[in-house]
Design brief:
Elements lengths: L6 E5 L4 H12 L3 E6 L2 H13 L3 E6 L5 H15 L4 E4 L15 H29 L2 E6 L12 H21 L4 E8 L5 H10 L4 H10 L9 H12 L10 E4 L12
Parallel strand pairs: 1-2, 1-4, 2-3, 4-5, 5-6, 6-7
Helix pairs in contact: 1-2, 1-8, 3-4, 4-5, 6-7
The structure holds nicotinamide-adenine-dinucleotide.
Keywords: Oxidoreductase
GO molecular function, one term: oxidoreductase activity
Family: Belongs to the short-chain dehydrogenases/reductases (SDR) family.
């Protein structure tokens, strides 16, 4: 896969999956714009890419705010002039609590980042790609977009919604050279999974990790590079006729009838 001359825009680019994907794009020739709310981790991703000889820039943004999303799109165009690949990926887990005890404010926050943030990304990036008559978008859903996950009502609802947005957007733009797909990772070794493990068992998060891993046919979590591989494929010419669908990266868990953690 060669992305020479292409521009990749990545939200949540300071996090585990976003950073691995940003590096994957950069090592294959793309210029990469990293978007993250966290300045330190966003800039660290840029430094890693530049140290490896790539081209990257950072813009701080909150994906829940329309002005902020418009700003990251404008800054990408001002810096790199086009957007060929968009990884619409920023997300949060929220708290782990049964639905009857789940705080309304937390529900709003998770939906705002994971679902509205993805909508706003599509809303502001699609016009750019439609004007170019080309582009590929990958939204980050989850196996929690396919199944339930105990104690995660907002997260599960948001990720089901991301798959819905993926289907609608892909249908709307398919005739105009723009593709929209999603990835559905199972547990991946990132900060987000560590925080979930600690919430489920503050005294023994390792036990939760081991139990989750035991429920995966491969016996382990994915690493961020394995999600990046699917995103790169979905943004490349190799997937030219693939749109409106998703790739599951979960070590065989859903195939074996498992649920999200
Ligand atoms: P992560 O916490 O390492 O990265 C998430 C990044 O998103 C962080 O850098 C964070 O600062 C950023 N972010 C959060 N809110 C933001 C906002 N409002 N505006 C801009 N940036 C914001 O976690 P990750 O595992 O790399 O998660 C990336 C995506 O993958 C998320 O959408 C997550 O739901 C999804 N996912 C993760 C797993 C997993 O097991 N880690 C599994 C399935 C899906």
């Amino acid at each position: 896969m060669d992305f020479t001359g292409k521009v990749a825009l990545i939200t949540g680019g300071g996090g585990g999956i976003g950073r691995a994907t940003a590096l994957g794009f950069a090592l294959r020739g793309a210029k990469v714009m990293i978007v993250d709310a966290n300045v330190e981790s966003g800039r660290a991703s840029v430094d890693i890419i530049i140290q490896r000889g790539g081209d990257a820039a950072f813009v701080q943004a909150d994906v829940t705010r329309s002005v902020s999303v418009r700003d990251y799109v404008e800054k990408t165009l001002a810096t790199y002039e086009r957007i060929d690949c968009f990884f619409n990926n920023a997300g949060i887990a929220g708290v782990v609590r049964p639905i009857q005890e789940y705080d309304e404010e937390v529900f709003d926050q998770v939906i705002s980042v994971n679902l509205k943030g993805v909508f706003l990304g599509l809303r502001h990036v699609l016009p750019v790609m439609l004007a170019q008559k080309s582009g590929a978008i990958v939204n980050t859903a989850s196996v929690a977009g396919l199944f339930g996950a105990p104690g995660m009502p907002a997260y599960v609802a948001s990720k089901h919604g991301v798959l819905g947005l993926t289907k609608v957007a892909s249908t709307d733009v398919a005739a105009h050279g723009v593709r929209v797909n999603a990835v559905c990772p199972g547990p991946v070794e990132t900060r987000m999974m560590r925080s979930l493990e600690s919430q489920r068992s503050p005294n023994d998060p390792q036990a939760v990790h081991a139990a989750y891993a035991a429920g995966i046919p491969t016996g382990r979590y994915a690493v961020p590079d394995e999600v990046a591989g699917a995103v790169l494929y979905l943004c490349s010419g190799l997937s030219h006729d693939v749109t409106g669908t998703h790739i599951v990266i979960d070590g065989g868990r859903s195939g074996s009838g498992g649920t999200a953690p």
